[in-house]
Amino acid sequence: MNINQDQLIIFITVMETGSFSAAARQLGKVPSAISMSIANLEIDLDLKLFERIGREPLPTPQAQSLYEKSKQLLIEMKQWKQHAFALSSGLEAHLNIVVVSELLHTRWTDYIVLLEQQFPELQINIFSAPQEDALHLLMTQAADLAFMFEREQLQSSEQFVELKREILVPVAARHSPLAESDQVSFEQILQNRQIVVASRDRQIKPELLFSKHYWRTDNHHSACSMIKQGLGWGVLPLEMLNEHPELQHELKILQLLDFTPKFEYFVDLVWSREHQLGAAAHFLINHVRNLRKTGK
């Protein structure tokens, strides 16, 4: 059996127009070519598709059954050709994106929607990880792009474009001792357990670590759950509290007395100079750059 795209188009057109001659006119062919194509298709399928009684061919039940499947198959064939053309034009086979755990609450999915609209056949894989692990995934080319916080020291192979600002705030459960004070001293911070979002690699020291005693987790959701239980204080995204008003009743933003830590960060779209990026990755990078140029 060797069914080609032209045969499917002719079969579908005959079904929709109701005759060989009408299909021929619509497709710009002679009626004999349409009739021969249908006859060859019947031979290939070993099925009778049309009853040739009277002036117009009548679809058989078998033809009616194949009609919808033929339309879907034709769509898939067109999509396959479009995807093959995109791949030959530089589209990557798949795009791996890692999102830093604390940024999962942000509107990062807007960028994924944009990619899906532009490259509907592209396979996109999303991972989440703490900051240090996200950078490792990027530098080992396990990820193509990363949404992550600005870094104090950049690796030579690292390249980025800024997306937005993100504010992190120190919080504690409202029933915890720390929340009883209007202002919290540095000594209190040092002596109280901190719940810190950190790499799964315990050899890597967490970046936003202040307390002498701390517990680690690899995402801000579990950190938030432990902080709400009074197991320690921690640093969470302010936008997370704004999007979930119930958290504001359970958590208190701590006012630090002795120092003002740098809790306001830029969020970057990051990639490696040493990694050969495809069309979709370049599209997203250029989109973000254009947004910065226009100030949107």
UniProtKB/TrEMBL annotation:
Listed InterPro entries: LysR_HTH_N, LysR_subst-bd, WH-like_DNA-bd_sf, WH_DNA-bd_sf
Membrane-crossing residue ranges in chain numbering: none
Superkingdom, taxonomy of origin: Bacteria
Domain annotation HTH lysR-type: ranges: 1-60
Keywords in alphabetical order: DNA-binding, Transcription, Transcription regulation
Molecular function as annotated in GO: DNA-binding transcription factor activity; transcription cis-regulatory region binding
Family statement: Belongs to the LysR transcriptional regulatory family.
Protein name: LysR family transcriptional regulator
